[in-house]
Amino acid sequence: MNHMSPEMQSCIDECLRCYQTCLSMAMNHCLEMGGEHVEKRHFTLMSACAEICRTSAHLMLVGSEHHKLTCRACAEICEACAADCERVGGMQECVEACRKCAESCRKMAA
User: Fold this and answer.
1) Cα–Cα dist 87/71, whole Å
2) Cα gap 66→103, rounded to integer Å
3) What is this structure's pTM?
4) pLDDT in tens, 57-77
5) Residue partners of 20: CB distance under 8 A and separation at least 6
6) Is there a contact between 82 and 98 (Cβ–Cβ < 8 Å)?
7) Residue 49: closest CA among 73, 32, 68
8) DSSP 17
9) 11 and 71 in contact (C-beta within 8 Å)?
10) How far separated are the first and last CA of the chain, in Å rounded?
11) 53 in helix, strand or coil?
């Protein structure tokens, strides 16, 4: 097994947690709530957030040096998603997962 730093493992964990949270909230909570929760801009942002988190985790897991690029993008998209989920309301779990992931990805991108 490839040995990675505790910081990278933590970032992978945060990315996968955010991926799971955003995808699950979008497909369950948002679809059930309707209204602002399913407006194109919000729903697309949640989908993009889930996907960039999954991609960032994948690139770290395979040992790609390009993980810094995706982690930089991931941090930016996670911050945007957190802000939008906070604006829409009732999505604190997603807000927290996105902010933790953004913080961890910023460190990985540095």
Assistant:
1) 24
2) 18
3) 0.94
4) 999 999 999 999 999 999 999
5) none
6) yes
7) 73
8) H
9) yes
10) 25
11) helix
Taking alpha carbons only, the member of 82, 71, 85 closest to residue 7 is 71
Quick one: tokens of 66? 């390009």
Which tokens sit at 9? 């493992």
> Rounded CA gap, 15 and 30, in Å?
20
**3-class DSSP state for residue 64?**
coil
* Cβ count within 10 A of residue 90: 14
Q: Residue 104 in contact with residue 60, Cβ under 8 Å?
A: no
**pLDDT tens sequence across 24-61:** 999 999 999 999 999 999 999 999 999 999 999 999 99
